Amino acid sequence: MSRRALVTGASGGIGETFARRLAARGDDVVLVARRQGRLQTLAGELAAHGVDVEVLPADLTAEEGLAAVEQRLRASTGPVDLLVNNAGFGSNGPFAELPLDRELAMIDLNVVALVRLTRAGLDTMLERGAGAIVNVSSMASFQALPQTATYAATKAFVTSFTEALAEEARGSGVRLQALCPGLTRTDFHTTASWSLGWLPSAAWQSSEQVVDASLAALDRGRGRVVVVPGPLNRVAATASWLLPRGLVTRLVSATVRR
Ligand SMILES: NC(=O)c1ccc[n+]([C@@H]2O[C@H](COP(=O)([O-])OP(=O)(O)OC[C@H]3O[C@@H](n4cnc5c(N)ncnc54)[C@H](OP(=O)(O)O)[C@@H]3O)[C@@H](O)[C@H]2O)c1
Fold first, then answer.
1. Structural domains present in the chain
2. How far away, in angstroms, is 151 Cα from ligand 1 center?
């Protein structure tokens, strides 16, 4: 039986890869993002897999767009079995110097939209006693990150929120995952004005590696809630949990100021 997934931020990067991987394995997909042209092009390609593809253009920081996606998640026809809350962006610079409007828009997208869509998806999934939600968080959720303070704080919220909901949903048939990628080659860093070209290639993953780790964890059934893709990222995450928080913050600060 085919399943249906709704992916936010499907017009590029990790979200586009989720849509490609899911359609390739026979899942119907609902594609959400602002750039309608990119979604239409992707939809044309994915239809070749013989799956049903819906394009739902929406700005998730605008009430109209967010309400439209909530409504789609609550629709009884064509129910959504997998929600991937992936749309998100970051920024770079001391908080006191960054435009406040953009920082607030980041909270609207990374936190408020994610919470509202999680609620809409969860309500119908709990009713059906089945479904899964992947909230795309970040390794940035594990410690404070100077120079991208708001972004790291939004992702700390996403990881904590998802872990709590996963526990609340235990035994309900609904699973939640906080996917915590490290550096992944997408447009994310250009959008956030990060110049990280000096980092060695070993520090980076492809969006395919990230998405495959997420789907493999989901396929394994109930189990890991926080998914950190890649052995190097898992070592770094473990170190950040073991070392004193203040030391980790200073180490990260020294790295990003390089
Ligand atoms: N790349 C990394 O190193 C990395 C690491 C850890 C976590 N992540 C997380 O992974 C997720 C995906 O990022 P990415 O790396 O794939 O970046 P990306 O290539 O920049 O993709 C971001 C996606 O979000 C969508 N989006 C942005 N603003 C939106 C809005 N207001 N309404 C609806 N959609 C919006 C964009 O589509 P439109 O512009 O068409 O709207 C795009 O599809 C984010 O949550 C990010 O925080 C990324």
1. 4-256 (3.40.50.720)
2. 12
